[in-house]
Amino acid sequence: MTCSNCGATSAPGQKFCGECGLPLALVCAECGTANAPSQRFCGECGANLGGAAARIPGAPGASAAPPSLPIQGHRGGTAAAPVAERRLVSVLFADLVGFTPFAEEKDAEDVREVLTRYFETASDVVGRYGGTIEKFIGDAVMAVWGAPTAREDDAERAVRAGLELVDAVKVLGVGIQARCGVLTGEAAVTLGAINQGMVAGDLVNTAARLQSVAAPGTVLVGEATFRAASQAIMFEAAGTPALKGKESPVPAWRAVRVVAERGGRGRSDALEAPFVGRDAELRLLKDLFHATGRDRRIRHVSMIGPGGLGKSRLAWEFEKYLDGISERVWWHQGRSPAYGEGVTFWALGEMIRVRAGLSETDDEAATRAGISAMLDQHLADDPDRRWIESALLELLGVSTGIASDELFGAWRTFFERIAETGTVLLVFQDLHWADPGTIDFIDHLAEWSRGSPIFVLSLSRPDLLDRRPDWGAGQRSFTSLYLEPLAEEAMRELLAGVVPGLPTPAADAIVARAEGVPLYAIETIRMLVATGQLVANDDGTYLPNGDLTELAVPESLTALIAARLDSLDPADRAMLLDAAVLGQSFTPAGLGAISGSQPDDLEARLRSLVRRELLTQVADPRSPERGQFQFVQALIREVAYNTLAKKDRKSRHLAAARWFESLGEPELAGALAGHYLAARANATPGPEADALAAQARIALKAAADRAASLGAHRQALSFYEQALSITVEEGEEADLRRRAGESAAIAGDFDQADGHFSRALELMRARGDRPATAALAGQLGQTLLTGRRSDRAIALLEASAAEFRDLGDDPARLLIVSQLARGYYLMGDPARAVELAEQVLEVAERTDQLVVLADTLVTKGSSLAGLFRRREGLG
Where is 191: in which H helix or E strand? Predict the structure, then answer.
């Protein structure tokens, strides 16, 4: 074949000239057929080939891409010539509705500004979902998925982008809305001609026509798009609208909302009501998330609201959104369990398990292997790998000997390393039940993380503010998002979306009782389904069955849930009450231990409760709780638990404690203690209650020791104080007071430390244990000095040094004198401090008491500097 441009001869079958690089054939934009360069019309379909050259960079008469739409992927040099192919693509057309009257009332510059924002918004949205802007035509946008790169979920991405775009446009101006049309099918694609007429054919024209008949604020799709995206997106049939230029009507569906992750993953068979009344909050989450990646700095959004207002639903909508965009997001989610005071760092441990592909039941060998494989992926050659690995293993209950004060830094560094390749998102569910250590870690992240895109989303009830009144104070980039009850209009929209045709009197009764709490409305619908007053429709909604005009609605959400529980078969109801004792989630094996039934026998009955939307089963293969069952809502568990009589609570908590003991997991020490405490609280005072208290103390001390080993000293203090509340023996009380004082001092709570050490000192002195009394005097003096109570500290230490002079080289007396030297230094008497320090150092060196030796050397060096003997002090 001879090139018409340079005359060079090319081998048969070649598409481009080997001398000048121009194409040896013109490709028809309508049908994709190759034609000789000299032809003016396509030999296959008769289309005019005159515009083909304009899409070939470098060809005579070719035009440049518009400056606002640069050719994607071009990095300089000569661009490769376009290649024509037939491809399966999804095309989106969108335009503005209401823009003309808006523009008539505005200045030309204001109109241009709005259009610019619209084009930027459209470009951002399409780009986030992996699409390509083909062109802007006035206020219309055309985008394509499937070219130049095809993905198996292109149709779904296009619909998601359409839904996002019509929502995002609402903020441009009063009365401005967008409408979209999406079609999927074969089209002629010119690869390498991005933003320059890349896609052509009847599909493009039909998508534009479909968009033109869509109602403002909606997205219409064709049949192929509907089939490809229906697993993750809910659609409503929109009939067969007549489209201009089309001989036959085209079947259409209206995209309603996203109901699952990509490909339908995570879609629930249970009732999912429309997402209403929270659009502004969801938009805020999206904006802050993208700002986190753009600015590369940490952000924390604290979502707070009473139970039932939709915190988890808002987080689920956010998760579905992030799953659909093309940006890399490292999603982590963990919840704090409801039993006891919380298990130390449980939510954080869940996040690491999911990232490492581990389950809760994996042994030490499997845990080590999983963590190692995860670090191979994210920190293969990182110099901090061994340090981070030790900290992560310690978090999951594998002892490594790492110092507790290094854990927060190592965990933070792990997330920062992952954030180098994409935004890290940490979702803390039920933070109102979290242990103090988890809350402290969130504060640590916000304070110390720099230059890393980390987005923290915490969900909690207002109870959290009772525990942390200063929550968020002083945090950089902290946003408080308090959820208020839904407006009446939103509640009616919710009901209409689930039960079309619900009689007005019934809707009025539900809305009035609900007071803006969406869970109340959903639970009412579930109750009506259970009683047969509503029947399921084919599209997932419900229809009234009989007369509902005189509907009797329970006055409170608690009464409503209780009514649902009472409607169950007695055996199923008893099983659900047993499950409530175990917490928000549970295994069939754990439930069997409480109920006395075989786990296999319980499975079928548990699944029936899933169908009745009281429970869900964790099916996500990434979750460490896969296969476990969960209550649909925490309030259902709370109502079920409160239904139990005290005697039944005691026996079930005791059975649960035995079950947790059999697992032998150090991480569960807090849960074990919680069950023993609950069993004792529901027992009759006497020998049985005393025996349960003894078991609880053992578990609480184990939980406190684990918390302290992880650096969670506030949590350890809480466990020690719970143990003290059920302790009567003075020797044991003194030991617990000492431990509590140590944790309080490390946590910086010097008032608490003072109180515990003082009481322990009093108890030990009464028991006549002089070495233990001396040790406590030294610890109390040290705490008073650190808490800037120097006068009282010196008085105590002087008296103690004299009282225990006969103990000689005993470590307890040495601690007293060492702290006395420190006290005199702090009080401005360095000479006396040096004198006492030298007494301590002589004994400490001789007896190898290294800790007190190091501390006293610091005191002596500082005191010598105060005496202007700096060179000696440095030595």
Answer: strand 177-191
